[in-house]
Amino acid sequence: MSPECTSVVPFEAPLPPTPGWHDMIPEGVNISIFCPTIFPIATSSEEKNLLQHYAVSVSRSLSVVPDEINPFLSLFMQMAMSQTAMRFALLGLSASHLRRIHPSFETVMTKYLAMAMEKTRGLLDDAQTSDEAAIEGLATILVLCLHEICEGKSRKWQLHLKAAVSLINSRRNCKFPQAVRFLLEATTYFDTIATLSFSKPPLLQDAIYPPDFEPKPTSPLISNDNNNNALQHRRPVTPHALFGTAADLFPIINDIACLAQKRAETPLTVYSHHAFLAHATQIETRLLTWRPATSINTPSDPYLAQKMSAASHALQWAAIMRLHQLVEGHDKSHPKVQTSVRNILASVSMIPEGDLSESILVFPMLMAGLGAVRDEDKQAVRSRMSVMGCAIGFGNVYEAQELIERVWRMEEEEEGWRGSGVPWDVMMMANGQTLIMS
User: Fold this and answer.
1) Of the candidate ranges 164-168, 224-228, 350-354, the one whose mean pLDDT is the lowest
2) Distance linking the first and last C-alpha atoms of the chain
3) What stretch of H or E contains 62?
4) Are 97 and 104 in contact (CB under 8 A)?
5) What is the distance between the alpha carbons of residues 67 and 18, in angstroms, rounded to a whole number?
6) This prediction's pTM
7) Minimal CA–CA distance to 343: which of 327, 367, 359?
8) Start-end of H helices in 350-422
9) pLDDT of residue 227
């Protein structure tokens, strides 16, 4: 049963009213959910209502940034206005979000998702010869993947993610236009988060991260005319809708997954054990010395930089704790575990409850829950996860909280894990490998 929604605690300083998203679409993008003339001819009132719910609610649940810089709004809505498969996918995702409160949307959700799947099959058939089909196909697959992730208990997200990765990998020599770069970045994000569930390397042959962080070689997948990356790295950056200001942490999370696979597959002889520890030490050094990029603030959110920094530090300590588990085991009493728990909870406490940036906190809160020993820490995790589930409104957040509660019960009931913590592979098997993201 999903936790009951609790009241949202207001931020210390009142935030200015958020402008309607239709007033903040980048110049040149002419869409507005509140202007009926933008809908394709014969758009039903059901579709208009679902698209409006997507615009004002779902798109915000998916993003850590305000409307004016949220591509789930500007890019995805723009595509839905002209692309049938994408429109059906967004309609299905919107109905899925509403279904948690209004079960009658189950049939509506099923209808639109089935229509999106049917259209996507045709797009994938044409993707190798048509850039337009490849772009719409990739976008639609990502929305279908998001639906399955946000269902919580669904495992079909793996199939959609593999399809998206396969499409990108098969077009390595074909450049995607800059206007849809977010689709490649989103695939990279999901691919990296999946490594936490499987403890295996990412599937993408060329990961695409936001361009405003550390200078990286130009990817063959996407053209890049910007030669000022190094200069931009020293300036405040625009946070990413999925990565926030922690994009540079995700390659390190990939390396942790690669290390986990090596440990599982390679017998730890004396030599390999030393190599394993040396690799782990190198990763830990990168984690401990990492600092998030400084974020800009936006007109609608003058506290964005503060919240992005706090969310990034929570992710950092979650990754440190995961690496420690891999190297040292799951002893919850270890000082490094308890330090990580305290730092995660301290960082999260700097973010107002119900804030958009909670969308990146599922992994940190999961790790804090796994390491919590004190009753007050467990209560802090339980309380915040309940608020996050209510504010975000997707099942995978509730599933993450249920997993934490399940692990706590296992530690209390099974003597072998009492005080020592449940091993990661056992926990993920109990979880059914739900993707731990929002």
Assistant:
1) 224-228
2) 18
3) helix 59-62
4) no
5) 8
6) 0.83
7) 367
8) 362-371, 375-392, 395-413
9) 43
What angle is formed at CA 46 by the lines to CA 43 and CA 148, rounded to 5 degrees?
Answer: 105
Look-up of token digits 């540079």: 248
Segment 61-84, tens digit of pLDDT: 999 999 999 999 999 999 998 899
Which residue, 244, 238, 273, is CA-closest to 259? 273
* 3 state SS of 125: helix
Of the two residues 227 and 427, the one the predictor is more confident about is: 427
3-state secondary structure of 176: strand
The DSSP output letter for 23 is G
The yes-or-no verdict on residue 283 having pLDDT over 90 is yes
Q: Which amino acid is at 46?
A: E
> How many alpha carbons lie under 13 Å from residue 236 in its C-beta half-sphere?
9
Q: Which residue has the higher pLDDT, 2 or 292?
A: 292
The number of angstroms, rounded, from the C-alpha of 150 to the middle of its chain's C-alpha atoms is 10
Which residue has 């406490």 as its token pair?
A: 349
User: What letter represents residue 336's amino acid?
Assistant: K
Q: How many C-beta neighbours within 10 Å does residue 155 have?
A: 12
Is 24's pLDDT higher than 70? no
Q: Average pLDDT for residues 18-44, to the nearest whole number?
A: 45
Written as six digits, the tokens of 235 are 């300036």
Give the closest residue to 427 by CA, choosing from 276, 333, 322: 322
Smallest CA-to-CA distance from 213 within 310, 313, 291, 299 is with: 291
Strand partners of residue 244: 240
